[in-house]
Design goal:
The chain is built from eight helices and 17 strands. By secondary structure, the chain is α/β, with parallel strands linked by helices. The strands form four sheets. The chain has a seven-stranded parallel sheet, sandwiched between helices. A five-stranded parallel sheet has the order 14-13-15-16-17.
Length: 322
């Protein structure tokens, strides 16, 4: 039976959304696999998140240490190598921290490494078939990973359907004493909070999000008119912020804000994984793009091949008439 460990990031005692996505990925690896959550940290926040995970996981391994109080890939890597069983499969998020942690962890565990998995096609013996995306999502690649000595796999957040939090009745196992030496060459300095903008896009149920397809700054007014008609908020992809057309607080993506709207309207956005990584909660996605091969259409519930500068004004008028 395959042993799978899922590393759970958390903040303020609350596990990130990917904690509910790991079980779906694990089933695709091996439906009979044993899935164990692993959480590191210190104090009350660690206890809170570990206890909360027992609703989803049968077993939760807790590793507590002052050195683990802040995310540090070097320290977490040392702890996991000492605690996890050799030859296991380890799942981690394909975010900034996961990309820091995972390659070195695979080396330390002498196992295979696959980054940014968007789907898993199952196991054939010891060979695991994984789907990745290249060229900004324009091409899907199918890779085979030999798990005979274990594997470390990072999953793209949002790529696997989250499960409902249930009553797994799991138990917490404290393995803090097995973590070993957690000294580090890195030194924590401070946490820099993200800037606060005039609008909090993380609280909006409907987002009208614009990308390169808006073409120029003056056209943002067209998106604002549509957002006003829909009682929505305008957000954007990174190129709009880089051009200084909107403030950083309106950017959706791994280097911007994480949002959980009910409806996400992607206007002229290609749909790179960096952008999609900032969208959580399985919203209804409407994508409008002139390029019929844009990656955004692979995840959209409704896809429309059209120039947004023609589409948005017409939709605005239609909404107003209703």
């Amino acid at each position: 039976m395959t042993q799978i460990f899922a590393y759970i990031p958390h903040h303020g005692g609350i596990a990130t959304d990917i904690a509910l996505e790991y079980p779906a990925a694990a089933k695709k690896i091996d439906a009979a696999a044993t899935l164990t959550a692993v959480v590191t940290g210190e104090g009350a926040d660690l206890d809170k998140v570990a206890d909360g995970l027992t609703a989803t996981y049968k077993e939760v391994i807790k590793i507590g240490n002052q050195a683990l109080a802040y995310p540090n890939g070097e320290v977490v890597r040392k702890a996991l190598v000492n605690v996890l069983d050799p030859g296991s499969i380890v799942l981690a998020p394909n975010d900034t921290f996961g990309m820091d942690l995972s390659p070195g962890l695979a080396i330390k565990m002498d196992s295979a490494y696959v980054a940014d998995a968007v789907d898993i096609e199952g196991m054939d013996g010891s060979l695991l078939k994984i789907v990745r995306q290249e060229l900004g999502g324009a091409v899907s690649t199918h890779v085979t990973c030999d798990t005979s000595k274990g594997a470390v796999i990072t999953l793209r957040p949002g790529a696997f359907a989250p499960i409902e939090t249930g009553a797994a009745g799991g138990t917490v196992v404290d393995k803090s004493s097995e973590a070993g030496d957690l000294t580090s060459k890195r030194r924590f300095i401070e946490i820099v909070e993200a800037e606060v903008g005039d609008v909090d896009i993380t609280k909006s149920d409907v987002l009208v999000s614009i990308g390169r397809g808006i073409e120029e700054e003056d056209n943002i007014e067209i998106a604002e008119e549509l957002a006003k008609a829909l009682k929505a908020v305008v957000s954007c992809s990174r190129p709009i912020v880089d051009a200084k057309w909107l403030e950083k607080s309106r950017q959706v993506g791994t280097s911007g804000q994480t949002v959980k709207p009910k409806v996400y309207m992607a206007m002229g956005i290609s749909g790179s994984f960096q952008h999609m990584g900032g969208i959580k909660g399985n919203p209804f996605i409407v994508a409008v793009n002139k390029n019929p091969k844009a990656p955004i259409f692979q995840v959209a519930d409704v896809g429309i091949v059209q120039d947004i500068l023609e589409f948005m004004p017409e939709l605005t008028e239609k909404v107003k008439s209703l």
